[in-house]
Amino acid sequence: MSERWDYWNGPDEVDRRVKHARAFKQEYQDNGDDVQRRIAAVEVAFRAETGIELPCGYASGWRPQIVNETTANAGKNSRHLTANAGDKRDSPGGEFAWWCVRNIGVLESHGLWMEHPVATVVRAWKVARVQGRMPTPWCHLQSVPPASHNRVYFPDGKALGEWEEFKAAGGDVGLSYEAWLDLVGGASAARKSTQL
């Protein structure tokens, strides 16, 4: 696995525990090791049922405050700040995130909560469509409950509106990227651009 996708590294492939040593605490190491074990267990269950191999590593792991402040859509009190969350890289269709929504019992058994896929999958699809590339969704999982205590939660008010919009357009849990492209129109142009 490339160091680029390691839980502790940033996009520059440098270990944030070293780069931001003043902000790092031993409890973050313990938290990060724990949440990675939990996420790996859920991934094993997903792979056993679906046979799908996910991309290696994380889109985001531990974030010091200075990084969190410049991360798009990051919550002010994100669980990434204490290494209690990980954004597991997902397939272009977001199969892992959709599977987790349908298998809440697996999340419960491993003590994990997740952001709703509208914020991690559908938003990634929108960005990819605008940029004319394949999407790179993720599945945000955390070992500490959100304020709502909902196992699957909307990370912000915008996400709830996006979910209602998604459903009104004909989307539902498990919709594929290709089917979503058909819903929003311009599917053939988007497909052509991603095949270049």
Short key terms for the protein model shown above:
196 residues, alpha+beta, 5-stranded mixed beta sheet, 9 helices, 5 strands, globular, disordered C terminus
Molecular structure report:
The chain is an alpha+beta fold and 196 residues long. Helices cover 46% and strands 9% of the residues. The protein has helices spanning 16-19, 26-50, 65-68, 95-102, 104-109, 117-131, 157-168, 177-184, 187-194; strands spanning 58-60, 85-89, 113-115, 138-142, 152-153. The longest helix is centred in the first third of the chain and has 25 residues, at 26-50. The protein is globular, with a radius of gyration of 17 Å. The relative contact order is 0.13.
Q: Could you give the count of β-strands?
A: 5
Structural class: alpha+beta
Order of helices and strands: HHEHEHHEHEEHHH
Average pLDDT, rounded to a whole number, is 92
